[in-house]
Amino acid sequence: MKKIKQFALITMGDLIVASAIKFFWEPNKIASGGTSGISIIIHSFFNFIPVGLLMIIMDSILFTIAVIVIGGKFGVKTLYASFCLSGSLLIMDKFVHVGAVTNNLLLAAIFGTLLSGVGMGIIFNQNASTGGTDIIAKILNKFFHIDIGKSLLLVDFLVTLLAGATLGADIGMYSLLSVIINGFMIDAVIDGFNMCKQIMIVSHKNDEISKFIMNKLERGCTIFTGKGGYTWNDTYILYTVLSRKEFIKVKEFIKEVDPTAFITVSDAREVLGHGFKDIIADD
Length: 283
Known about the structure:
Elements: H1 2-28, H2 34-45, H3 51-69, H4 76-95, H5 105-125, H6 133-144, H7 148-167, H8 169-194, E1 196-202, H9 206-216, E2 222-227, E3 234-242, H10 244-257, E4 262-268
Antiparallel strand pairs: 1-3, 1-4, 2-3
Helix pairs in contact: 1-4, 1-5, 2-3, 2-7, 3-4, 3-6, 5-8, 6-7, 7-8, 9-10
């Protein structure tokens, strides 16, 4: 069931990214990095070749090179995400005959990138990627010892540079703007999926509160011993990590059993371990 959910989410993410390419980037020739960007540039000169088909060809070549050069240990989810994206574009080209949502380059760059960022964030959150330039980045890392993150930025920058050189400076700058926004958007989406509440509670009813957390919410908690700074009396500090909805339930429970409790809450951007995401990512 978990696998089915993961692949369903990857498919949804691919469809969102494909929509961004189909309705915003491709008709406005915005090459926002990656194999999609290169495909859009090629499609601008050879418009009888669909962008989706170009992406399939490039991804196939890159995966083959990766297997030969760097061993190519790719997860099933990454392979699926890569070819599902290009396949989705091919299907859209055949059955969805709708032009650009807007011909304004700025709006196309911004809204296309926001849409793509949401889709990519969903895909990355399932421990997958769409392949493509990730492979080039890994090759650069192996032979030139450039960090993966810097390699990805370098490859995407070169794609936008190519777009500027072949399609005009305006297109190149809007493409670069899309690359920049996309990075921030993906991070924001992933943070939104994984964000939890890190909670510390000081209360004389910690026993009841801990039982509520463990029995009703089925979450774990840890008790620390401490001393009150004013009274120097022994006290206990309860620490737990909960989802937003679970925190609301705990807060309502604490209001009932101990309205004088002291609570601190902070955002945990990612939580790994039992009950949350696995520490070791699965394929």
